[in-house]
Design goal:
The complex is a heterodimer.
Chain A lengths: L8 E12 L2 E12 L3 E5 L6 H8 L7 E6 L2 E2 L5 H7 L1 E3 L12 H8 L8 H6 L3 H19 L15 H14 L4 E5 L7 H17 L3 E5 L3 H7 L2 E6 L2 E6 L1 H6 L1 H8 L3
Parallel strand pairs in A: 3-8, 3-9, 6-7, 7-8
Antiparallel strand pairs in A: 1-2, 1-4, 4-5, 9-10
Helix pairs in contact in A: 3-6
Chain B lengths: L6 H12 L3 E7 L2 E6 H18 L6 E5 L4 H12 L3 E5 L5 H10 L2 E6 L2 H9 L9 E4 L13 E3 H14 L3 H8 L5 E7 L7 E6 H14 L7 E3 L7 H13 L2 E4 L6 H8 L3 E3 L2 H17 L2 H23 L5 H22 L6 E5 L5 H9 L5 E6 L3 E5 L12 E2 L4 E4 L4 E5 L6 E2 L3 H7 E2 L2 E10 L5 E6 L4 E2 L5 E2 L1 H8 L5 E7 L7 E7 L1 H10 L7 H5 L2 H17 L6 E6 L19 H7 L1 H8 L4 E9 L5 E12 L6 H13 L1
Helix pairs in contact in B: 1-2, 2-3, 2-6, 8-9, 12-13, 12-14
The chains are: A alpha/beta, B alpha/beta.
């Protein structure tokens, strides 16, 4: 069991509702994530998994309810402020600069930490130089963690899909988030790529102590690595618990198999 | 001044003489970071004393497993400084192999790189009870491991620091006590058919091999080399001599996967990579050229044949006319020099390949772009035996026999080696030691011969040899390989055996290449079959055979040959799918042809079944010329006469 879980929730969603016209994407969504936990969100297609990530990160605006991160209300914050607050995410379809190298993609993600002004940047003097070195150090740590040394200077556009997903994870880590939301990081991967990705997610959780919320379709992965699992169906939370309990839960089986 | 007979003693000398000079460099976080001799000394000292604190005694064994990184390099020196022996293991060994080696070598400690290796060791913990500690150097992923057998590098260094404070001069005393005759390393060779054997190698043996390398290919202090082979390979220990003895800067790549990029950044003076890696460099070049723009592609296509022409003339010892020289200078400026830069060999003086055969095509390719690959011949047991010096590179030999290495060819054509570089024996296995070391000579199991120039020629493993009636043993695959160096020969099968007195070959011509050659000479031809029987083509191939014969020992020279009117075909069962000859089948299939060669006939009809495009089958009969390599009735003629006489 992870230690941090007792320190109180890092993320709290209270009765969050989201609708697009008449479609109710999320309904009275209430759940918490403890510090240092690795929580998976599962559910059939259209259950609202990606919607909840988009709502937390400010891409969507919750209609009702509130979202608190480290005790602070972030319900109405725009995406870039959520990011500064310490929440990073990856996308189902990778969102990277295809023409930039892996290194530059990760460095670009660090811009939220830059404080130096235009002049000192232009002269590469003082704060600018110091920040640049700091940024490179952080990024090199991530390259080491995700074993991307060999592709450091390659353009992202030339990389195979599995590696681009890894770079995407690296880009999110470059923000040095306390909470990272991973939207289907293994989708479309072959078995070997999946195993690699799972190992990296575990490393992020264990080595860096980052809190992880994972949206994932592969049940084997979910049951293997999660501390806790939350199940969505039609925009509602229908179950929550330890992986072993979730496997046995009648509502979950029904939602997945449609059996009466 | 004590005798410098172990690497740790050299380490002390270098630290005293040039402590602030760079000893090694590693790429970390994308940046090359330097370590001075003082740094290295300090690292080795702390690790050594740390191990001593844990109870390491002279004569003990310590196993190391991991990728090639400075920590492992320092650990090796630390173990040897304490008078103990290094048991080098391959980083991709599976747990059961590790268990066997650790158990068999009586290792008391294991030094492991990272989580991956530690996991393997923990899995087999029960079967290696003699191991007191497993020390790891990469902390990544190790946070939650709490097995008491584990110890981090920092903790080990901490122990060493404490011991050093309590016992000043302890490290220096230990190093002074090391002896060249002591065991430096036990190298386990992977047995394909049996359990691995642990070759015991003394400091003297390692230093002897290292000296041979440095005498043949001298480098100066401060020049750069890069480690390319796994630390478990014995070559690594010889290579370290450049560092310890000549103070050449040794560079460690960031990860095994980044090796090729790191080579380019360093452009090492001495570069040994495996044939497979040379092959991948070559195919990488072709792919990159294929992706390049129109201009670059055209320049490459235009100038590569110039490179080939020059390379061929050089290997065949033909003169190079002035206009070819000028063209080549231009080609080098425009294409080859930039290519060599991309491959990272701009500053490489000694490009080497070893350990297995590199196919002729690749040799030719690298020669064409100005990389004269040299060969090194040696083994864990024998040490470095021969290497190519400058200006005497040829594709046929595996180099000149190094000073200090005694080589003898046995009656069965086995290469025997004697001298200080030879190993002591297999650990705890006197029986197998006695099988290979007899009367002081190490029996390599390789067959070969030595030329008058003192060059060693490797043919094949002794088990793959065939024998002629006169008792001479020859290596069919070797002779075929040599012949395939020729551009005009696509495939070839050597024929001989116990019932015959001389060797012959059946050849597939390279239709495309000879076709072009014929066109250039306005020689008209219709089909493959027609072209193959042309008098001029026969003469062309004959000259090639004559050239190859010059490097073969006299009794193994090819006397007669036939050019087949068709290619060997995998669909007809003549080749395997990977284009290897199916000898037995071919021998039966071409029975008549082979008999005709040895009956001294000059022509033989051959009927081949052909399948036309529309599905019909037909038979085509061609009269094949049976040709002799030497026109005058010398070797072949005499042999033939002898055959006729014998038959009455």
């Amino acid at each position: 069991m992870k230690m941090g879980a007792s320190e109180g929730p890092i993320l709290r969603c209270d009765g969050v509702g989201l609708s697009f016209g008449n479609v109710q994407a999320l309904l009275d969504m209430t759940f918490q994530v403890g510090k240092g936990e690795l929580v998976s969100i599962i559910g059939p297609n259209g259950a609202g998994k990606t919607s909840v990530i988009n709502t937390i990160t400010g891409f969507y605006r919750a209609g009702t309810g509130s979202i608190h991160f480290k005790g602070r209300d972030i319900t109405r914050l725009p995406p870039h402020k959520v990011c500064r607050a310490g929440i990073a995410r990856t996308f189902q379809n990778t969102e990277l600069f295809a023409g930039l190298t892996v290194l530059d993609n990760l460095l670009a993600a660090r811009h939220i930490y830059l404080r130096s002004n235009l002049l000192s940047c232009a002269l590469y003097y003082g704060l600018a130089e110091q920040e640049d070195i700091e940024a490179r150090e952080v990024v090199e740590d991530i390259i080491d963690l995700l074993e991307m040394e060999a592709i450091r200077k390659q353009e992202v556009g030339t990389l195979p899909y599995g590696l681009r997903k890894r770079v995407e994870l690296g880009r999110a880590l470059a923000l040095e988030p306390e909470l990272i939301l991973l939207d289907e990081p293994t989708v479309g991967m072959n078995l070997e790529e999946k195993e690699d990705m799972v190992r990296f997610v575990l490393d992020v959780s264990e080595e860096k102590g980052t809190t992880v919320v994972l949206v994932e379709h592969d049940m084997e992965i979910v049951m293997d690595i999660s501390d806790r699992v939350i199940v969505f169906d039609f925009g509602r939370k229908i179950a929550e618990g330890m992986p072993a309990d979730i496997k046995m839960d009648a509502r979950v089986i029904q939602a997945y198999l449609g059996a009466g | 001044m004590p005798d410098l007979d172990t690497y740790p003693k050299f380490l002390m000398r270098n630290r005293d003489a040039s402590g602030d000079q760079v000893a090694l460099r590693r790429k970390d976080r994308g940046i090359w970071k330097s370590h001075t001799w003082q740094d290295c000394y300090e690292q080795v000292r702390l690790l050594c004393l740390g191990l001593v604190t844990l109870g390491l005694e002279p004569g003990d064994k310590v196993a190391i497993i991991g990728d090639d990184e400075p920590e492992g390099f320092w650990a090796e020196a630390a173990i040897q400084s304490a008078g103990a022996a290094v048991v080098a293991m391959w980083s991709d060994s599976i747990p059961s192999e590790i268990a066997y080696v650790v158990q068999h070598s009586d290792a008391r400690f294991v030094i492991a790189e990272d989580q991956e290796q530690v996991d393997k060791l923990l899995e087999i913990k029960e079967s290696i009870p003699a191991v007191q500690k497993v020390v790891f150097w990469d902390r990544k992923g190790m946070r939650r491991y709490d097995d008491p057998i584990l110890l981090g590098f920092d903790a080990l260094r901490g122990l060493g620091r404490g011991y050093g404070e309590g016992h000043p001069g302890a490290f220096e005393d230990l190093v002074a006590r090391t002896r060249g005759s002591g065991v430096a390393q036990i190298s386990y060779t992977s047995g394909t058919t049996s359990l691995p054997k642990g070759a015991i190698i003394t400091h003297d043996a390692i230093l002897a091999s290292a000296r041979r390398m440095q005498e043949t290919c001298p480098l100066e202090a401060g020049e750069d080399v890069i480690t390319t082979l796994a630390s478990a390979s014995v070559f690594h220990a010889w290579f370290a001599g450049y560092n310890y003895m000549s103070r050449v800067v040794i560079n460690f790549p960031e990860e095994p996967e980044t090796l090729m990029q790191d080579i380019r950044e360093i452009s090492p003076r001495f570069l040994l990579v495996t044939p497979r890696q040379w092959e991948s460099l070559s195919s990488m070049t072709q792919t990159r050229i294929g992706d390049a723009g129109f201009l670059k592609r055209s320049a490459y296509a235009l100038f590569l044949p110039v490179g080939y022409e020059i390379a061929d003339r050089r290997t065949q010892g033909r003169p190079i006319p002035l206009h070819w020289r000028m063209l080549h200078a231009l080609a080098d400026l425009v294409v080859f020099a930039p290519l060599r830069d991309k491959l990272g060999v701009t500053r490489t003086r000694y490009p080497f390949t070893g350990s297995a055969f590199l196919s002729p095509d690749f040799f030719r390719f690298f020669q064409a772009i100005g990389i004269n690959l040299r060969q090194i011949y040696g083994s864990t047991e024998a040490g470095v035996v021969s290497m190519h010096r400058e200006a005497e590179i040829d594709n046929d030999s595996v180099g000149r026999i190094c000073a200090g290495a005694e080589v003898r060819i046995s009656e069965t054509q086995e290469i025997l080696v004697r001298g200080p570089s030879v190993f002591t024996g297999y650990y705890k296995d006197p029986e197998r030691t006695a099988q290979v070391i007899r009367d002081g000579w190490f029996h390599t199991g390789d067959s070969g011969y030595v030329s008058e120039r003192g060059h060693l020629y490797y043919q094949d493993r002794i088990d793959n040899l065939d024998e002629l009636r006169n008792g001479h043993r020859y290596a069919p695959a070797y002779i075929e390989g040599k012949l395939k160096f020729s551009r005009y020969i696509q495939d070839v099968m050597a024929v001989g055996g116990r019932s015959r007195d001389f060797l012959s070959v059946i050849i597939n011509i390279d239709f495309e290449c000879i076709g072009k050659w014929a066109e250039a000479r306005r020689l008209s031809y219709t089909t493959f079959a027609d072209l193959s029987q042309k008098e001029e083509v026969g003469e062309l191939v004959r000259r090639d055979l004559e050239r190859v014969n010059r490097v073969l020992p006299a009794p193994a020279r090819v006397q007669r040959f036939v050019l087949l009117p068709k290619e060997f075909d995998a669909d007809e069962g003549e080749l395997t799918r990977t284009r290897k000859l199916k000898r037995r089948f071919l021998q039966t299939r071409y029975r008549e042809l082979i008999d005709a060669i040895y009956d001294g006939k000059s022509e033989v009809p051959m009927t081949t079944e052909v399948r036309y495009r529309d599905g019909r089958r037909g038979k085509v009969t061609t009269n094949l010329e049976v040709r002799s390599v030497y026109r005058a009735p010398d070797g072949a003629g005499a042999a033939l006469a002898a055959v006729r006489e014998a038959r009455g």
